[in-house]
Design brief:
With 145 residues, the protein is an all-alpha fold. It is built from four helices and no strands. Helices cover 60% and strands 0% of the residues. Helix 1 runs antiparallel to helix 2. The structure holds zinc ion. The site of zinc ion has 8 residues, from helix 4.
Length: 145
């Protein structure tokens, strides 16, 4: 059972944004671009959550059979973790859409620089620029996190 983090399908569905020369960063057109990406991603994710929930219900029904209970419990736990991750991600996506609505999207929360279109297309929920992200990860490691 592979649990490897794969790139969400929704992040392969759009045409990368090509800003015109001198175009203002995070103008309405760019904000709309990212809103569409996030909405598509959210839609996909909600369908995934539906599938996970259905799967959980099916597995719960099969729990009556003790023969492969251990295997099932393992699968069950895995799905619960998946569900938890999906829920957190959905929350994050919703928060990000709110930021777009408030015209507060695309800038690093720590130092205020532009996060950048390409980085945001790869990771639309990013709130830190590459430098601050790297720094945050280093700190986390030092704290033994
Ligand atoms: Zn920064």
């Amino acid at each position: 059972m592979a649990v490897a983090e794969k790139k969400p399908e929704a992040l392969n569905k759009f045409v990368p944004y090509e800003p015109a020369p001198g175009e203002e960063y995070m103008n309405d057109k760019q904000l709309e671009h990212f809103r569409q990406i996030l909405l598509t991603w959210k839609q996909d994710l909600m369908e995934e959550v539906d599938r996970t929930v259905r799967h959980l219900q099916e597995e719960a029904n099969n729990f009556a059979d003790p023969a492969d209970r251990a295997t099932q419990e393992e699968g069950f736990n895995l799905e619960l973790r998946t569900r938890d991750r999906e829920r957190k991600l959905l929350k994050k996506i919703n928060e990000t859409i709110e930021k777009i609505d408030e015209d507060d999207y695309g800038f690093c929360e720590a130092c205020g620089v532009e996060i950048g279109i390409r980085r945001l297309e790869a990771r639309p929920t990013a709130t830190l620029c590459v430098d601050c992200k790297t720094l945050a990860e280093l700190k986390e490691k030092q704290l033994g996190g």
